[in-house]
Request: fold
Amino acid sequence: MTGHSLDWEKLGRYLAGESSPEERAALERWLEEHPSDAQVVAALDAATRGIAPAESVDVEAALRKVKGRMHSAQAGATRGRWGTYVGLAAAAALLLAVGLVLRGTPAGSDRSATQKFATAVGQRRDVRLSDGTRFTLGPLSTLTVRGREATLTGEAFFDVVHDAARPFTVRADGAIIRDVGTHFTVHNDGSSEVRVAVQQGAVWLSSARDSTTLAAGDVGVVEVAGRLSTRRGAATDDDLAWTLGRLVFRDALVSELAADLQRWYGVQVRVTDSALARRHFTGTFSTEPTDSVLKVIGLALGARVERQGDTAYLRAATPNR
Reply:
């Protein structure tokens, strides 16, 4: 707290009992130095007791309720002083209404509404959560967030604000990724494996069969059957290339290739030859049109590409006569 102004966001955390020890001590010192303001805060404290949080909040109704209680509780403050704070109290009530102050909620429970973020084919999306955590969602991906718990289908890069008491957790198929203060990517196409690459800090990665801690530069892979493998120091700049609009493949199986092409270009790839399905592809794409991408892939795999609408068939090349 500085000067003679109240920080209503900090006050909201203070009234909810969610301040850090340092923030609480600073605010209490400020209130001791400003007894008239302390009276107003005490009245606001009394006015907001019993307002239960809800996932869907009628902000206007909450404002009317808080203002009504504040006016009935103004006996301890002068009317002139109180009038100065009515507008500010309304701003504080807005914070209360959207759930910043959560009266009567058991400690440690999940107190946030569920948020769902999704992208279309070829689209990326940057999001900042209320706790400061940021993520970039890859094309045709979905992330559902409730508090510090998230469920991912597709691909995302996370820049997590660490909280030792409430670690940020991402679930992707059979994998659970828990941050230890970090930047990391998660690739989950829903058909083969979940791949986690750590750029900074560390994460705890677990499956139904095993668990491990990944440090900066490490890559962890959870297969469909639950087997977990770790490649120390295997993370590269390629793991973040997609956040810049580049699709990079390094010795990728055709199944991985197909999943990413559907997310980025909206094309379903069908492989009609089992030998083709076992081949690997290396290449990079950025702004090339879909047909050019398919042509490059066909040449690299030694396959014929036949496109029918949004479906591309990879067939064994006809031998030269």
